Amino acid sequence: TERELLDLTALVAERVKRWRRSLRNHHIGWDETTPPVWVRAVRAEWEELIDILLDNAGKYSEPGSEITVRLEAGERNVRLIVRDTGEGIPKEELPRVFERFYRAKRTRSRHRNGSGLGLSIARQIVEAHEGTIRIDSQEGEGTEVSVSIPISQ
Ligand code: ATP
């Protein structure tokens, strides 16, 4: 697993295209005019990370709802944001979602399958790239996952 110089914009655009085909009932918003952003990253790991976030956004929101993917380049870092307007995560459970095998109470009763591993893998990938990941969520309103990693100068 070698790092390479990657255009994160192109990679995200390609994954969005793929997820638009499998989440047929959702609408995935993505600005096709997002400028290229170069990072040093392991391609397969970033594909997996984006897949984890889009899979969750799709699983925990209603068909027909909107999922938004954005890439925002700052001076040193680029931020990848995936937001949904789904069921959200109760405040008291939010601190635990990055734990291995943790699944929220409501999730355990409503969505039978799932390992609770996705977000812990996502965090490992992000931290291996000197990045940070955070989740903001409002129960009944939606969830926003935000990943930040250094831009390659
Ligand atoms: P798997 O990794 O097998 O898909 P999972 O989705 O349960 O299982 P994680 O991705 O680690 O595992 O997520 C942990 C828990 O965090 C989920 O079970 C769910 O309760 C909550 N969660 C994650 N993403 C969202 C989201 N977008 N909206 C609401 N809840 C979420």
Secondary structural class: alpha+beta
Strand tally is 7
Shape: globular
The overall average pLDDT, rounded, is 95
Number of helices: 4
**What is the strand arrangement across the widest sheet?**
2-4-5-7-6
Overall radius of gyration: 15 Å
**Major pleated sheet:** 5 strands, mixed
Strand and helix order = EHEEHEEHHEE
Strand content: 25-35%
Parts with pLDDT < 50 across at least 5 consecutive residues = none
Bound molecules: adenosine-5'-triphosphate
Distance between the termini: 22 Å
User: Considering DSSP H and I runs of 4 or more, what fraction of the residues is helical?
Assistant: 25-40%
Subcellular location: Cell membrane
Keywords: ATP-binding, Cell membrane, Coiled coil, Kinase, Membrane, Nucleotide-binding, Phosphoprotein, Transferase, Transmembrane, Transmembrane helix, Two-component regulatory system
Main location: membrane
Protein name: histidine kinase
Explained architecture:
The protein is of the alpha+beta class and 153 residues long. Helix content is 32%, strand content 29%. The protein contains four helices and seven strands. It has helices at 8-22, 43-59, 105-110, 118-128, and strands spanning 4-7, 27-30, 38-41, 66-73, 77-84, 132-138, 142-150. The chain has a five-stranded mixed sheet with strand order 2-4-5-7-6, covered by helices on one side. Strand 4 and strand 5 (77-84) form a beta hairpin. Helix 1 (8-22) runs parallel beside helix 2 (43-59) and helix 2 (43-59) runs antiparallel to helix 4 (118-128). It is globular, with a radius of gyration of 15 Å. The relative contact order is 0.19. The mean pLDDT is 95. The structure holds adenosine-5'-triphosphate.
